[in-house]
Amino acid sequence: MSRAPQTTRRRFLQGVAAVGTAAVIIPSANRAFGYQNANDRPAFATIGLRNQGWTITSKTTPYADFVALADVDENVLADNVEKVKKRQNGKAPDAYGDYRKVLDRNDIDAVMIATPDHWHTKVAVEAMYAGKDVYCEKPLTLTIDEGKLIEKVVKETGRVFQVGTMQRSECDNRFLQAIAMVQDGRIGDVQKVTCGINGMSPSPEIPVTAVPKGLDWDFWLGPAPKCDYRALPEMRQGYGGGVPLYSNCHYSFRDWHEYAGGKLTDWGAHHVDIACWALGATDTGPSKITPLDYKLGCEYEKGYPVVHDRYNVATQFNIQVDMPKNVEMIVTSEGDNGILFEGTKGRFFVNRGKIVGKPVEDLSSNPLPEGAIEAVYGGPVPANHSVNFIECMNSRETPVSDVWSHNRMLEICHLSNIAMRLGRPLNWDPEKREIVGDAEANTFLSRENRKGYEIKMS
After folding, report:
1. 394 and 414: one domain?
2. CB atoms within 10 A of CB 257
3. Per-residue confidence (pLDDT) for residue 240, from 0 to 100
4. Are residues 114 and 58 part of one domain?
5. What pLDDT digit, counting tens, does each position of 93-113 carry?
6. Quick one: pLDDT at residue 38?
7. Which DSSP string corresponds to 90-121?
8. How far is it between the farthest Cα atoms of the chain?
9. What is the pLDDT of residues 167-176, one digit of tens each?
10. 195 and 166 share one domain
11. Are 299 and 387 in the same domain?
12. Does some domain include residue 373?
């Protein structure tokens, strides 16, 4: 079932002729169609508030009223209540330590989910059954089977669901331009795509220590296995500041397979997404994943870490992905962060800071067709990713970052992690969405939630 972005929102560009004039890469004015009056503004809540939780909330406050916030850390919750109160001219949202109290409220139209990854599926599914539209941060899932479940519930409930891969709507339309160039044949037939997603340093041993005051550690763990809180006292600076540099909790949760997928599902969820969109592979997947070389954060046995006192995700990696039409994708921790497209007629590179290469330079004399950027997006490009979500809440159409295309590309990231954990290539059936001829590897497509934190399926 294809959910390609050009089929979403409106068919505004049907019949537009490609007349060869320059494509104007200017975001449309700040607006959310259908929510221009104060009485029309939807009621929102955010669940999970550190870092990205505040980012998506702050981007959305011009277009929605935040009536509730939820977080398992009292300190994070209190801080964000004050920040939202200031944004809303003194109108404070209600504060909850338990997200289920948010879902019980009939006055909330939509929830934004920015919890650690291992919570995403449980909260999202229960929110949809509670009648809420959902904006969920990337990566959407911890496992491939969780993605299948979310797709089922979206279809069953009819809820609008936006995934937070904001590169699709923001970054000065640089990635949309890259997709338009590939699809307009500016590099000929694509032969290779390299996604540079950064590596990381391994951690030292991280000791068990006291749980910080105000943090409900058991509830933070939720569906994940029960374990001790670990941290070193040195504090992280800059983005993610105010928390220990090394821990198995705030900010550093992405470095543990129990809660996330490391760089593969962090930056990979951005760049592999754009690569698949450009290749027209949003409703299919690879045939094979081969870990060429890699290093894990600790020793593994039969796919599981043998120690639990340090980061365990991959720190360095080069992974070969066999894509449709004989395109080779390389996902690597080496080189510049971004995407390199190579074809029979040229190559160019794009990331959040630049888009460079001869095919880009050639645009000055041979611009993209008028409307090419909007044709990729499926309509006018909004001010930010949240605006697209609210527009689709109003129209009941599929947002630009839908669960189907997101899960398809995220399968590449999940399979890469499985291949490294097991130390072998994996053959993948993109129609059945299962690993071929490897029963052990297929056990990694799902995970069992901890007792008491099962997903409520109604």
Report:
1. no
2. 24
3. 86
4. yes
5. 999 999 999 999 999 999 999
6. 55
7. T-PPEEESSTHHHHT-TT--EEEE-S-GGGHH
8. 65
9. 999 999 999 9
10. no
11. no
12. no
Contacts of 417 (CB under 8 A, 6+ apart): 257, 261, 262, 264, 265, 313, 314
Range of the domain at 274: 184-357+405-445
C-alpha distances (whole Å) from 378 to each of 183, 201, 355 are: 14, 40, 22
Query: Comparing C-alpha atoms, which of 386, 388, 370 is closest to residue 26?
Result: 370
Beta bridge partners of 231: 247
> What is the count of structural domains for the chain?
2
Quick check: is 388 in a domain?
Answer: yes
Residues 333, 253 share a domain? yes
Beta carbons within 10 angstroms of residue 83's beta carbon: 16
Q: What is the pLDDT of residues 267-287, one digit of tens each?
A: 999 999 999 999 999 999 999
SS3 148: helix
- pTM exceeds 0.85 for this model: yes
Would you put residue 66 in left (φ > 0), alpha (ψ -120 to 50) or beta?
beta
Per-residue confidence band for 239, with pLDDT thresholds at 50, 70 and 90: confident
Interval 442-454 mean pLDDT: 98
Higher pLDDT, 430 or 39: 430
28 and 77 co-located in one domain:
yes
Question: Are 232 and 348 within one domain?
Answer: yes
Per the structure block, which two tokens stand in for 248? 């198995």
- Domain with residue 36: its CATH number is 3.40.50.720
Cα 359 off chain centre by: 29
d(CA 453, CA 147) in angstroms, rounded, equals 18
Element (H, E) at 89: none
The tens digit of pLDDT for each residue in 13-30 reads: 232 223 233 333 333 333
Task: Supply the pLDDT for residue 87.
Answer: 97
DSSP class of residue 422 equals H
Task: Specify the CATH number for the domain of residue 249.
Answer: 3.30.360.10
Q: Are residues 59 and 188 in the same domain?
A: no
